[in-house]
Predict the structure.
Amino acid sequence: MTGTDICQGYGKRFLGILLDLDNTLYDFGYAKEEACRQVVSAVGVGTAEDLVRAFLFSPFGVESPKAIQSYLKEQGITDPAIFMHAVQVYTKAKTEAIRAYPGVYETLLKIHAAGLKIGAITNASEAHASERLRYIETAGFFECLVTPDNTGMKKPDPAMFLYAASLLKIQPHQICVIGDNLVNDIRPAKEAGMCTIHAEYGNRLPPEYAEGIVADFTISSFSDILQILGL
């Protein structure tokens, strides 16, 4: 674990944490790739890499089933029944492939038991986010779940972080934010006046896109946040 001196030695001052979900609590990249592999196996054409790219560059968003429809069309498949089957395969496989990173449940349990408030900020839909938290059996720890559905905003808007702080009834400087994405999680949290922790173990952002952003702390496993919080 590495960090700056901005928050060093002030673990006891923190009253709450705000967590990103995908690639911070669980390896969502793996789950998505596994789901794409199963879709390709089911339809028998193309490659999983092609389908992953279809999601990444979809104008409808990285979670839209329309990415599958576009992918199938590129493969010469327009049968609605095949599309519906592919969506069902994808949805089931993605959910079943989601597994919490080591120590997530135990760490959240300790934070909760210590009386700190726990919230989440994600660009996933409220339905998807809630489903994933239930699937890794951590939903009961969260006092707020901030999504584009209930705010009309998306990360990297710092206003999402300030809104979450208002829901937790905690001042921004009393909050630690943990996220894997330097642009979407760390920069807006710093702009909101919060202590920031980069979940390096889940980072998939190439260095050239990091824009020189530096978090207050960098951790290599989720349980490292306990030391920062003084627990």
In short: The radius of gyration is 19 Å. The chain has two domains: 2-27+100-229, 29-97.
